[in-house]
């Protein structure tokens, strides 16, 4: 079992994104300055996964149309 403090649930992504500008205002030496949650990377990954899913669905539709 693992407990992760940097876990971001889907319901809280908007709150994490809202906090990003506040992180930017922290001094360089502050331990929370780095983007530990990497919300932007989560957004890119989610978009990429959605695009892949849409492509797979479109391929299945095209195959189904050709078979009928």
TrEMBL record:
Task: Give the record's GO biological process terms.
Answer: regulation of transcription by RNA polymerase II
Task: Indicate yes or no for the key word Nucleus.
Answer: yes
InterPro entries named in the record? LSDs-like
Identify the keywords attached in UniProt to this record, alphabetized: Metal-binding, Nucleus
Superkingdom? Eukaryota
State a single Gene Ontology molecular function. Answer: chromatin DNA binding
Annotated localization: Nucleus
The Gene Ontology CC terms held by the record are: chromatin; histone deacetylase complex
Q: Using the UniProt record, give the first listed, main subcellular location.
A: nucleus
**Keyword Metal-binding assigned:** yes
Q: Which PANTHER family match?
A: JMJC DOMAIN-CONTAINING HISTONE DEMETHYLASE 2, ISOFORM A, JMJC DOMAIN-CONTAINING HISTONE DEMETHYLATION PROTEIN
The entry's family comment says:
Belongs to the JARID1 histone demethylase family.
The name this protein carries in UniProt is Transcription factor jumonji domain-containing protein
Protein source organism: Perilla frutescens var. hirtella (Perilla citriodora)
